[in-house]
Specification:
The protein is mostly helical. The chain has one domain. 78% of the residues lie in helices and 0% in strands. It is flat, with a radius of gyration of 17 Å.
Length: 69
């Protein structure tokens, strides 16, 4: 079983993610699912910046107005 997971890691994770988002869609609706996806995408982006030891503030300044901070 672990050999299958090692060979097909992307497929297994994609199937689990698809099941997860399908359940969210069934319980909360389409709009709420999009909100969850947007929040997760932002959190993932911040996580990548944090792992690379890059400044999160500088990254956000590209997207936010100058007088935000």
């Amino acid at each position: 079983m672990w050999e299958y997971f090692r060979i097909h890691t992307g497929k297994v994770i994609a199937m689990i993610a698809g099941l997860f988002f399908s359940v969210i869609y069934l319980f909360f609706g389409l709009l709420d699912t999009f909100v969850v996806l947007i929040i997760m995408s932002i959190a993932y982006y911040i996580g990548i910046k944090s792992d690379r030891k890059e400044s999160i503030r500088e990254s956000l300044m590209r997207f936010l107005p100058d007088n935000f901070f």
